[in-house]
Amino acid sequence: MNNLRLLVLLVFSVSTGYAQNKGSVKKQPIIDMHLHALWWGQGEMIGALGLKAPKDVAAMRDSTFYYLRKYNIVKAVADDAFALDYFRLDPQRIIPARQGINPLLSPDPIDSLRKWFKAGTYKVLGEFMPQYVGYRADDPQLDPYFAVAEEFNIPIGIHLGIGKAGFPKYTIANGNPIYLESVLIKHPKLRLYVMHAGYPFMSEMIAILSTYPNVYVDIAVINWVLPKKEFHYYLQRLVEAGFGDRIMYGSDEMMWPQSINISVENVRSASFLTESQKEDIFYNNAARFLRLSEGEMKAHK
What we know:
It is built from eleven helices and eight strands. It has helices at residues 2-27, 57-70, 83-89, 110-119, 143-151, 181-186, 202-211, 228-243, 258-268, 275-290, 294-300; strands at 30-36, 73-79, 94-98, 124-128, 156-159, 192-195, 215-218, 247-248. An eight-stranded parallel sheet has the order 1-2-3-4-5-6-7-8.
């Protein structure tokens, strides 16, 4: 009888511990620094993933919010056509962002950005995409955008590295993070993060991070488009170089909300990361970069 009682207690203890651990994983807060609120039309992701886009705008919205809730993504920086609609639906979760330069649209006038930032309509400048329209980050024509972001203390997320071919002025060379240096020297108070962690320009990205502590990176898109082994190699190199406290999760969810699932799990499966490092990447680094209040962070955790 005593042996039976001991066995029952042991099983109960193990199962309870498992449930608590499982629950803690589910409750871990995540900040997505790179989410698109748009719908281009139905289609499939090119490549082996075979992700299907939702049938319409409403289905896209509902599916996106389903995955945000499923993974306890407590904050998401959202840009594109429906960013303000997403914000109105869930103002506690969505941080509305303005792209400033979009290869499919005319560039935003600086006066408009100034008005929006002053009013608090948009909280982030990004995904800032000069590479798609033929500019390097250090092009003088971009300086007014960096200046207004610095003036209003607005975080700016700039697309560098890999991108979508097919735009006439797009080149991979213009996405080299090394071209940020003159920008960072001229605007030392800029709160800037490099989207896609500048992949594949690893050496240049490490050089910028080493010299400019106000620069962070997100790991959006590379955490689900690249082969997992390649993504893990790039991420591990950034961590081993000493920048685990400036790497932020992002999904770069565009038309396939299931990509959030893949991108989260590919970070979780990185065996070279400690649980503490994963928490930093998923939440702590972005919370610090966005300067969330103590109250917000306490509520999230």
